[in-house]
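Hey, weird one. I pasted the Hemoglobin sequence into the form twice and got a warning about non-standard characters only the second time. First submission, copied straight from the form history:
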Amino acid sequence: MSLNHDITTLTDIELLVDTFYAKVQKDELIGSIFNDKIGDNWPEHLEKMYRFWQTILLNEHTYSGSPFPPHKQLPVEKAHFDRWIDIFTETADLLFAGPIVEEAKFRAKNMATMFHHKIDYFRNAAKHNTNH
């Protein structure tokens, strides 16, 4: 039985996001992809992620924008998304327990699946267009 509480505040989201991305930055498979793309803009990226998850999980509408476009050109494959999900799930389970954290893991998995399929779609469309 976990003694952890559920995600209920912005402080909880900040802890989840900060802990998750600290692990991502050091990860052998996906760390360099994030670090190369984000560079010195980690504070801005983390702030955007706080607002994104606050909007989704706490229904406090602080995020606006479209999350997919910045990911469209990333050099990623299914293995990268699988690793991202593994780290997210492991971090969420380490820090929290309850229905909102379960929703976070569900949403993260769905997002990773959708992003992977959309990236594949755009790559295939680009290949198709260059072959004609």
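That's the output from the first submission. The warning seems to come from a hidden character in my clipboard, not from the data itself. Residues 99-130 form the longest helix (32 residues).
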